[in-house]
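[Q] Does anyone have a clean structure-token version of this?
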Amino acid sequence: MLSPTDPLDAKPRSTPVPDGVPAGRRVSPGCPERPPGPCAPPGLEEALSSLGLEGEREYAGDIFAEVMVCRALPRRALPRAVTPEMRALVVDWLVQVHEYLGLAGDTLYLAVHLLDSYLGAGRVRLHRLQLLGVACLFVACKMEECVLPEPASLCLLGDGSFSRAELLCAERRILSRLDFRLHHPGPLLCLGLLAALARSGPQVLLLATYFLELSLLEAEAAGWEPGRRAAAALSLAHRVLHGAGSGPEPALYSRAELGPVEPCMVRAALRGPAPGLAAIFLKYARPQRQGTSLAAARLLRHPPAGPP
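[A] Here you go.
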């Protein structure tokens, strides 16, 4: 067993500076200068109200710009010791821990974002990958939850592979590596806004949420903007349920921009409960979620006819 001060990575490295950012300026991974925000679409205030944000109607345009224009992480290869399959195993385990603890949906997306940010900023010891994942979840809980899980409980869920002291040390290293820049408007909020704007029904929203969560397993998804991932999930859900040509026309992203994102979600949905990657499929197969994963696989294999 390593000591509590054993580092997550083999050799600490400074955070790379994205292209186009002046030298000497401190930036967070994936958070370069924000581009100009888009114009608020019609019906945005009503969409916010439907999400329980009536008090923020005055700031509708600012909220839309903040959420939908958040950039993706820079496309960087995973550390040499970490393969996409290893990353997916850790994310699948985080999904199980997240569901067991009954945490908010945004907590899971932020935890995976922090994990990808850390992996993109330097090397990581392979045997510390699970510790890194649960430490990212612990940090995300402090950002999103009202009641925090006890570190001892997280250590117990890790089957004793790390101690409380190691978890807290990993938390400090994450905060230091990411320069305490933890805010990230996740794709789940983007999906809620887009679904409300499109007046999508509850079945479409549930299926889109499933597709969106499946994208967490894919390492390439970290290189897609949260808004684009959400728009792709919503567009795919409309087509799967109602056939080709149904659903709202994409407003912020063209069909060509959504094209590379959707196949990733389709592959994951058709993969089913693969060994080590079954958590999301089984989670959405339960009656509480209307057997969404089972229905999605069936409809993807036998799509309905589109509107005449």
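[Q] Thanks! Anything notable?
[A] The radius of gyration is 20 Å.
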